[in-house]
C-alpha cells in the first residue's frame, strides 16, 4: 500500500492548449502535479472543508498573490506540491510558526484532512489551493518570491516506460527555481533510490540552483529536523529501506 502523501503527487503528460503556447514548454506539455483519482471523502472531512476553506482556501486565478495580504503578515513563504493527507505539512507548520506555507493539493479527502488538522492545531500559517500546482506556480506565484519549496515522496512511477510521468523533471524545476528568492531552498525527498538519483541529476542541471551539500555524501542531504518521519517512512526504515533527501539552494 502506498503512502497517501505519495499518491497525491503523481504526474501525467498534458498536451498543448493552443497554438499560441508553442514556445512555452510548460504550456505545451507540462507534468501535472497529480492524477485524478476517486477517493472516499468522510463526513468529517466534508465538514472541515465547508468550515475551513472559506477561511484558508485560495482559488486558482491568473493573478499574482500578495503574500502579505494573503497571510495578514510579512513572513518567509514556502510552497508545497502535494501534501497527501496533510500530517507532515501540519507538523512542519507547527514547528515553524514564523513561516507561511502555501499547500497545493487536488484530492478532496486530503484537503479535508489538512483542513481538520489546521483547525485542531490552530495553525494560522497555512493556506490551501486545490488545483494543479504547475498552473498555480505559473499563474499565481511571483518570480523571486519564495523562501522554499517542498516535494515529498512523489509517485516514483517505477516502470521505465512511465518515467516520463515523474513530477521532478527539468521544466517543473526550472519553473520552481524561478519562483525561489535568491537563497531560497528546494527540498525533495523519496524512498526510491533510482528516483533520488534522477532528482539529484535534474536539480544539478538547473543553472539557477546549487547543492547545499558536497559530494562527500553523494550529493544527498541529511534529513533536516523540520521534516518529520512519516509512518510509511518509519516502517520502511525498520525494513531496511533507504530514504533520500535532496536540498538545493537558489543562487
From TrEMBL:
Report residues binding S-adenosyl-L-methionine: 80, 105, 132, 155
This protein's pathway: tRNA modification; N(7)-methylguanine-tRNA biosynthesis
Give the Enzyme Commission number. 2.1.1.33
Q: Which residues bind substrate?
A: 159, 191, 230-233
Q: Which reaction does it catalyse?
A: guanosine(46) in tRNA + S-adenosyl-L-methionine = N(7)-methylguanosine(46) in tRNA + S-adenosyl-L-homocysteine
Q: What is this protein called?
A: tRNA (guanine-N(7)-)-methyltransferase
Q: Which UniProt keywords apply?
A: Methyltransferase, S-adenosyl-L-methionine, Transferase, tRNA processing
The similarity comment for this entry is: Belongs to the class I-like SAM-binding methyltransferase superfamily. TrmB family.
Renumbered to this chain, region (Disordered) spans 1-23
Indicate yes or no for the key word Membrane: no
SUPFAM superfamilies in UniProt: S-adenosyl-L-methionine-dependent methyltransferases (SSF53335)
Q: Which PROSITE patterns match?
A: SAM_MT_TRMB
Per the entry, what this protein does is: Catalyzes the formation of N(7)-methylguanine at position 46 (m7G46) in tRNA.
Q: Which organism is it from?
A: Azospira oryzae
Cell membrane as a keyword of this entry, yes or no, is no
- The primary gene name is trmB
